[in-house]
Amino acid sequence: MAKKKGGREIIKLKSTESTEVYWTRKNKRNTPDRLELKKYDKKLQRHTVFKEAK
Does residue 41 contact residue 20 with C-beta atoms inside 8 Å? Predict the structure, then answer.
């Protein structure tokens, strides 16, 4: 099966406080602005803000 065009894209989320990185997918059509999530940082052992990076 072929992939659909214009759907989800793989993005990288970088921590604002350390060098930790998460990889996830988002739908560019529904959320065109940059993503900002609060996730668990393994190095700091607490929840921090992760922002979408290029």
Answer: yes
